[in-house]
Each structure stands twice: as C-alpha cells, then as structure tokens.
Design brief:
The complex is a heterodimer of chains A (about 300) and B (about 220). Chain A has helices at about 5-20, 30-35, 45-60, 70-75, 80-85, 115-120, 135-145, 190-195, 215-220, 240-245, 270-275, 280-290; strands at about 20-25, 40, 65-70, 90-95, 125-130, 150-155, 170, 180-185, 200-205, 205-210, 225-235, 250-255. Chain A is of the alpha/beta class. Chain B is globular, with a radius of gyration of 16 Å.
C-alpha cells in the first residue's frame, strides 16, 4: 500500500511536470524520491535556507513546496516561517513527514508534537492533517494550485478509509444533547473504536486551521460536552473550541500528546498507547470525562 | 525594482530628505553607512528587471531617503517616520512601503530569500551588514549559492567593523572559499562602487562586494 509520504512524492513529481509555477525545495529529505528536475532545488542540510529559498521563489511568482521531517521543517526555521513567508506576505506549501512520533525509535530529536501549535500561532496558515493517503490528492493538488500559506502534516498513522467531505464531517449523530467527539486526522480509527456503542456524536476534522467554529457549534446541537482528539500536542485546538462555544456553557476534554519531555524510543504504536491515544486510552478518558456507564463491548484496556 | 514615476529630487536632496525623515540635522551613523552604496545602486546600477533586497533592515533612513530621492517613495511619506500609520517604519515592511522588496529587520533573512529569487535567473542584489553575518543563516545561503554557481546574485556587505568578534583574515576570504568572487572597495567612493557593481558578471560565480565605511 502506498504511504502518505510516497503519495506526496508522486504528486510533487506530477506537479513539477504539469505546472510550471510549482518549484520544490528540499534539504536532504525526499531528495532522491522527488528526483532531479530543473525546479527541484535541494539545498543540502540547510533548513533555514530551505524556507528562505521558498520565499524567494514565491517572490518571483513561483509556487514553492518545501518538505522535510517535522522538526526540521517547522521548528528549526520557525522564524523564517514567521518572517520570510508570513511577514513578507508570500505563500508556500510546507509538507512534513514524521508527525508527532512516527520516528519514535529516533528519540526526541525526531519527534515534533508541537508543530501544529507553532504553525497555528502564526497568522494566515491553512493546516491540513489528513487521516488517510487517499485524502492527499485533493488536498495537495488544491494547495499546489493556490497562493496561500499551507501546512500539510503527513503521518504513518492512518485511518482505515478516507473521509470525503473536506474540513469538518459529522460521521455519527448521537441523541439530542449527546457529547461531540471531534477526531482530527489519523485519530479517527481509534476514536471510532473507542466510541462504538456510546451515545456520542463523532465528527472528523482534517483541516484544523482555519478552525470550523460554526460547524462545531452546529454539530454540538443541544449538548455541552466536547471531546477533542488531536494526534499532536494536547490542547492545540482547545482555544478554538472555546471561541466556537464562547456564548454557551460547555465542557472540553482535549486529548493529544502531553506537554512533557518524553524519554522513550520504541514504536509509534507504543507511543500512541503511552499517550492514551489508542482506542483503549481514549475510551478510558471518555469514561472519566463523561462519567457514563459504558454499555456494549468495551475495548481492551492496556494499563500504563 | 520599481521605477520612479515622478520628477526625482536627486542626490543633493538626500541630507534634507534625511532631516525630513528623522527630524535631526545630525544623522545616526548606522543609518548612513549604506547611503553611498544605496545611491549608486538606485542611480546607476539597478535595472527595471533587477531586485534589490535590503537584508540589513535596521537603520533604514538612508534607504527611505534614496527611495524618495528617486521618486519611488513619495516625499510626504517621510513625515511621521515610525508613527502608527506611517508606511515607513524603523524596519521596512514590503506590504506597507512602495519599492521595498522584502520586509526585514531581523538579521540573517534577506540572503536566503535572495538566493531563492536568483535561482529563477533574476539579477538580485542583497545588502547585508558585517555584524549581520554573525547570524549563521547567512552562511547557509553563502555556501549554497557558491556551490551551485549562482552568478545572478550579488551580495553587498557594508563593513563598518561592527561584528563583535570580528572576521579574522577578512570577510572576502570566507566568501571566496565558498566559491564567490569577492572584492573590497571604499564604501564612500561612488565611482569605485559603480565600477564593481555595474558590470554583469561573466561566468557563474556569485559576487560579494565588501563596502568598507568608517568604523561604527
């Protein structure tokens, strides 16, 4: 099966061949996979330059696509995102791989659960967190054709199937007043498992910025409880939920990767469990938050 | 480069434009370190298709004065420099100010952007300061531009000896090691500046002009 990463490379090559405006800038990640092309520039291991070059290309009317591992695309050149692109009012498509803990075995240096919060702290960025490889074609082709600033966060974690419908899609409706679980990107598979048999509504969200305030407000109906499940830093979108619901009493549980120095290697699956983002962990958090008796089949619990 | 659209006041008007900008008869030296280089660029070097990126965005008074003298920035815009609604701030904003090609102020950003623009074949001139070169991001750009032979790029380093730890054995030598053509000229000698900045380069090496001015 094609991974998100592989599909991105295919789409990048296709865009280079078909759209003379598109230029790709890399820094020794994906260099060979994207391959040689007159508008593919690999700058060596120089990520600050990678974003500066992207800005310079945008200044000349090109549509730059910059790509690297999450920490090297977002964190190392963060001021270049803020100034070279944002303050200069220039557009680019930034595509990361590695997500929060895909490279768990590499250690903290290659883990970047902070990325979405960082990009979201800058004005004017659209942020996509696709949950399935088949969601990429639409997202990336649209991003390549635009002029704005777009961050696309790819991951090895994936849902079982794509979700159509774009930004905010209600997949399941609970009874009137039922809690609303908002599942971001690749958290949908464990969220569906953890919510099976519960009286909750479930919505899927792949485009987290701009945040769909109105859709969330409507989807909550007469309810008060929102559970946000994000595959990156816990609480990244909690303030957006507060904005959406500012005129009504509500409760929010924000699940995600805890803000702590997490000194473990291993696999992404182990990290997901340790952060309580597997089905059992999400179910535990829902139990506590909703203080509800769970009826039908409970997922297997894994104690930490 | 945006070309002048009105009758321009010219070089002799620069002192009064600076006074109009800052309100002072005496002018801050860091603002004036770039004055002759900027004048030569805008008066004799830059063509309509060229880009000039002021990476050293602090002390932009000379830059604004030259833009005004060339009719690119309206002279009236100099009034209220740095005030709430001014187009012209203490660090330039390309969205606000006509003729400003990049927003700058945080050091070490312009050269990377210049490399990106020059990769498209555009003739690009980027002005940095010797202290600005302390920022490591510049060297990412210097190394890469040299390796790929980015002949359309010229970097002008205003050297007023303000880098705290200095550049033992010279700034030029560092650029040359990375594959640049590098020259040192008197940053107050307009004829010398024109002579090194005006000709197009033969070949594919980027060019570094160290323009030496009085020490800060």
């Amino acid at each position: 099966m094609t991974t998100m990463r592989e599909r991105f490379y295919e789409l990048a090559r296709e865009a280079l061949d078909e759209d003379g405006r598109v230029a790709v800038v890399t820094a020794q990640i994906g260099t060979d996979a994207i391959g040689e092309h007159p508008r593919h520039f690999d700058v060596g291991i120089r990520e600050q330059l990678m974003i500066g070059v992207a800005a310079g290309l945008a200044l000349e009317g090109y549509r730059p696509v910059a790509h690297s591992y999450t920490p090297f695309l977002v964190e190392r050149p963060y001021e270049m995102l803020k100034l070279d692109l944002g303050h200069n009012d220039l557009g680019a498509v930034l595509v990361s791989i590695g997500a929060s803990y895909d490279a768990a075995h590499e250690g903290r240096t290659h883990q970047a659960p902070e990325d979405v919060a960082l990009v979201a702290a800058l004005p004017g960025w659209t942020i996509h967190v696709p949950g399935h490889v088949d969601e990429l074609d639409h997202l990336l082709r649209r991003a390549f054709a635009g002029n704005d600033r777009v961050y696309v966060r790819l991951s090895e974690e994936e849902n079982h199937a794509r979700v159509d419908g774009g930004g905010f899609t209600v997949l399941r409706r609970g009874s009137s007043g039922a809690p609303l679980v908002v599942s971001v990107g690749p958290t949908l598979a464990p969220v569906l498992e953890a919510t099976a048999g519960r009286d909750v509504s479930v919505a899927y969200l792949a485009t987290v910025r701009p945040f769909p305030h109105a859709q969330l407000f409507t989807a909550l109906g007469g309810g008060t409880d929102v559970v946000l499940v994000e595959p990156y830093l816990a609480g990244t979108s909690a303030a957006e939920v507060a904005v959406a619901l500012r005129d009504r009493p509500h409760r929010v549980l924000a699940l995600g990767v805890p803000n702590e120095e997490f000194r473990h290697y291993g696999t992404g699956a182990e990290h997901r469990i340790a952060h309580g983002l597997d089905a059992a962990g999400i179910a535990r958090s829902l139990d506590t938050f909703l203080e509800a008796v769970v009826e039908t089949p409970q997922p297997t619990r894994i104690e930490r | 480069m945006r070309m002048a659209t009105t009758m321009a006041p010219g070089y002799d008007a620069l002192p009064s434009l600076l006074t109009r900008l800052t309100g002072d008869e005496k002018h801050d030296r860091s603002a004036l370190s770039t004055l002759d280089v900027l004048w030569v660029l805008y008066d004799r070097v830059l063509g309509e298709d060229d880009r000039f990126l002021l990476s050293k965005g602090h002390g932009p008074a000379a830059f604004y004065a030259v833009l005004a003298a060339k009719g690119i920035v309206p002279v009236e815009a100099l009034d209220g420099f740095g005030s709430f609604d001014s187009q012209l701030g203490y660090h330039p904003d390309r969205v606000l100010a006509p003729g400003v090609e990049i927003s700058s102020g945080s050091l070490g950003h312009g050269l990377g952007i210049a490399v990106g623009a020059a990769l498209t074949g555009r003739r690009v001139f980027c002005l940095v300061g010797d202290a600005e070169l302390d920022e490591g991001s510049n060297w990412e750009a210097v190394q890469y531009a040299g390796r790929v032979g980015l002949g359309s790029l010229t970097t002008i380093v205003i050297d007023n000896d303000s880098s705290w730890h200095g550049w033992p054995e010279g700034i030029e030598r560092r650029f040359m090691l990375e594959g640049w053509i590098a020259l040192r000229v008197d940053g107050r000698d307009q004829e010398a500046l024109e002579a090194v900045l005006r000709p197009d380069l033969a070949g594919n090496r980027p060019r570094c002009i160290v323009a030496e001015v009085e020490a800060r």
